[in-house]
Design brief:
Main location: nucleus
InterPro entries: HATC_C_dom, RNaseH-like_sf, ZnF_BED_domain_contain
Helix content: 55-70%
Strand order of the largest sheet: 3-2-1-4-5
GO molecular function, one term: protein dimerization activity
Strand content: 5-15%
Protein name: HAT C-terminal dimerisation domain-containing protein
Organism: Talaromyces marneffei (strain ATCC 18224 / CBS 334.59 / QM 7333)
Largest sheet: 5 strands, mixed
Length: about 575
């Protein structure tokens, strides 16, 4: 309720209105949901005489009001984040409008910042760079009340297309983001391994792509024949008590190919039974071809092998999409993947195909596109690896990054456990995050750099998920929504859940350590104030200012001699 002078009156009805609208937006419900007769009847039972807001008010003033409220809360949270990781992506919506999204990620949370209509802008590297800098400048101006600090932008993660790689080059050559890490999405790189092996045009793995083609033919056949598919589902239910789906792959999502072959493999017995039950007078050529594939025992043996070989890749790709997948996980994941795929292919009919992919440069070429020098820095900053030999070529890559940061010599001392790192307390910590928090006293610049990497997310999945939610919000039924309205809906749907979860989250070990340090600092400040108060009381007896006593005191300056834990909070 709002008075003529614009002052809002907080009543129970207005709170209910806002609660219903928030449930509508965050649950992706129709704006007209509360105006439906049965919903009105239910609301009347809960509160007699209450009239819910109609769709025009929900999609109008209430959307704007709740967006503004959520934006204010979210900005307050972002101001507390030391390392902002930015992800950017582009797509088209239901109305064929080209839109770009910016999300903010941390190892714990992902947030939507904006969704913008690019209209007729040419999306080349130069224009994307200028647009991105403009959007981030507006964000930082809001966060810091006009006093812009670009250093809080920790990284930029995008897909691995050539345009985005050019954006990285422009930003690192001359821009306020020269300091930021440019991170290729690890999930994209892993998905492209599927493409290397399965793409009918480029793959050299003849057996692999042949078996995949036959599995894909089976799925396509049943999806185009609902009656045959119903017969198959009935057989599966009779055999196992429930139905299982044949999953089609998505052309632009190479990771979905594993789901296809695995779904066919899991329905093996039902498919064989279905093929045996088909009437003999069925002579359509495609049907005969599919039955021939299903009844071929060699097909099933190789398909089972293919599932085994691809399962580690599927798991690695899923792990790379996790919110807490940081840059420290990338190289270990790729090394583990190579070992597991090679091992899985041993003694199978796919062995030659997989061995050729790894031995003849296919995997190496893919890894070299994905793994940058900054990944190697992260890999070798893990204290568990100081005993492992560091190759000279990799060492030079690391040096090229660390030397300009004035931390190269600290890195050498860290590797050799000498200098400031000799018998340092940090070696008592096994957790990498705690290790570098402890090391902040002895190597502040290197610890600050390591801390940035620890908080660097290695994927752009949050931007893609924002587009998935956009497609749920902006549908054919809602095709009249403007991009600005969809932006507000997405902001509420994504960020309200993040705000809610943050209220209920338990602190991580490193947060607990920082909280303890903050508490130490608070106690120290209180003791300092108490000491000053005592001095002032004593000085008031002879009218001598307390400040004179402090200046004349031989004791160290209180502010300069703050506890080590307190100083560590100021690092980075």
């Amino acid at each position: 309720m709002e008075l003529p002078n614009g002052i809002k009156v907080d009543t129970l009805e207005t709170r209910i209105d806002c609660a219903l609208a928030r449930a509508t937006f965050t649950g992706n419900r129709p704006f007209s949901m509360w105006s439906q007769p049965f919903m009105r009847e239910a609301l009347q039972l809960l509160r007699k005489g209450y009239i819910p807001p109609d769709r025009h008010r929900i999609g109008g003033s209430l959307l704007t009001e709740l967006y503004t409220e959520s934006y204010t809360k979210t900005i307050g949270i972002w101001r507390q984040i030391q390392h902002l990781n930015i992800t950017v992506d582009e797509t088209s919506n239901i109305n064929h409008q080209r839109v770009m999204v910016i999300t903010i990620t941390t190892p714990q949370r992902s947030w939507l910042y904006c969704l913008k209509d690019m209209e007729n802008e040419r999306l080349n590297a130069k224009n994307i760079t200028e647009w991105l800098l403009h959007q981030l400048e507006a964000l930082l101006a809001t966060l810091f009340d006009g006093d812009i600090d670009w250093k809080c932008i920790n990284s930029l993660s995008t897909d691995t297309c050539s345009t985005m790689r050019l954006v990285w080059e422009i930003l690192q050559r001359k821009s306020p983001l020269q300091h930021a890490f440019m991170i290729p999405c690890d999930s994209h790189g892993l998905q492209l391994i599927f493409k290397d092996l399965l793409d009918m045009k480029v793959s050299q793995a003849m057996t692999v792509k042949h078996i995949f083609k036959e599995a894909n033919d089976i799925v396509t056949f049943f999806h185009r024949s609902p009656l045959r598919y119903a017969d198959l589902q009935a057989i599966e239910k009779a055999r196992n008590g429930r139905k299982k789906a044949l999953i089609a792959s998505v052309i632009t999502r190479w990771g979905s190919q594993y789901n296809l072959i695995n779904s066919v493999n899991e329905l093996k017995e039902s498919l064989i039974q279905w093929a045996q039950s088909v009437s003999e007078d069925s002579d359509k050529s495609k049907l005969v071809e599919i039955i021939g594939i299903i009844q071929d025992i060699t097909f099933w043996n190789i398909l089972n092998d293919l599932c085994r070989v691809f399962k580690p890749l599927h798991i690695a790709q899923k792990d790379s999409e996790a919110l807490n997948a940081t840059i420290f996980n990338v190289i270990p994941r790729w090394l583990k993947l190579e070992n597991e795929m090679r091992t899985a292919a041993l003694y199978t009919q796919l062995h030659e195909d997989i061995k050729a992919y790894f031995n003849e440069g296919g995997f190496t070429a893919r890894a070299n596109l994905q793994i940058l020098s900054i990944h190697w820095v992260a890999y070798w900053l893990d204290p568990k690896r100081i005993r492992q030999p560091l190759e000279s070529s990799t060492k030079e890559k690391i040096r090229a990054i660390l030397e300009p940061q004035e931390v190269w010599h600290d890195f050498l001392h860290f590797r050799q456990q000498d200098g400031a790192f000799y018998k340092a307390r940090c070696w008592e910590e096994s957790e990498i995050t705690i290790f570098w928090l402890e090391a902040a006293d002895i190597a502040p610049k290197l610890a600050s750099f390591a801390n940035r990497l620890i908080h660097t997310v290695a994927n752009s999945v949050t931007a893609e998920r924002a587009f998935s939610l956009m497609n749920l919000q902006h549908t054919k039924i809602r095709n009249r929504l403007s991009v600005e309205q969809v932006e507000k809906l997405l902001f509420l749907q994504i960020n309200e859940y993040q705000l809610q979860e943050k209220l209920n989250e338990e602190p991580t070990p490193e947060q607990q350590l920082e909280d303890e340090e903050a508490e130490s600092a608070r106690v120290y400040r209180e003791q300092s104030l108490e000491f000053s108060s005592i001095l002032n009381n004593l000085n008031s007896m002879d009218q001598k200012p307390a400040t004179d006593l402090i200046e004349a005191s031989p004791e160290p300056d209180l502010e300069l001699e703050a506890p080590r834990a307190y100083k560590r909070l100021r690092i980075g």
